[in-house]
């Protein structure tokens, strides 16, 4: 192999890998609330938890993870799997419940956006939760470092 060649990919990227890469992205580039990214014109802007997962999966900003035209099939599936693993972790360990203006309980089950945007949330909590979600995914899906 020549020094300029990109080495072949040696394995499958798991949701746990993407969650750890998202945590690393936040440590390096910063955390944000209120939108996926702090600056849409910046190559590596501060991001929310979901935005960091998108950056880890695709290497660029993604404005809507549910729109298939913004992601190719592999990135779409990988991104949604990592988001689902993160949501599963949050639902188990840090469920979000709010009461609306009419006094009804609103269950924010299913997506990490409200959790990320809680005014009391800190960057360290988000990074720690991403890493813990990755560890949990690994514990449920791998045996001795190998996928089950």
From TrEMBL:
Recorded superkingdom: Bacteria
Q: Name one Pfam family in it.
A: DUF6197
Query: By what name is this protein known?
Result: SUKH-3 immunity protein
Q: State the organism named in the record.
A: Micromonospora harpali
